Amino acid sequence: MSSIRPGGPTTHPVWEALGAPRALLPERQRRSILLLGLGGGAVARVARAVAPHARIVAVDHDREVVAAGFAASKRKRGG
Predict the structure, then answer these.
(1) Is the pLDDT of residue 1 over 50?
(2) Is 24 exposed, middle or buried (0-12, 13-18, 19+ CB in 10 A)?
(3) What distance in Å separates the CA atoms of residue 6 and residue 39, rounded to the nearest whole number?
């Protein structure tokens, strides 16, 4: 189970471990990230912290998860 740390990009060591390999790549190879399953968004937050300028695409079969993720992203961008 994840726990949210306000102001921090990571939420649990397992999510840090999933995002860490991306940090080792040269920046030119961190342009696009595909997430299969959005869940609570922890991996997306780690991906954004590791590759702040990357295009992140998340796919999830649960419409409610997608709607919540979209709303959170929109709020964060001020839209």
Answers:
(1) no
(2) exposed
(3) 18
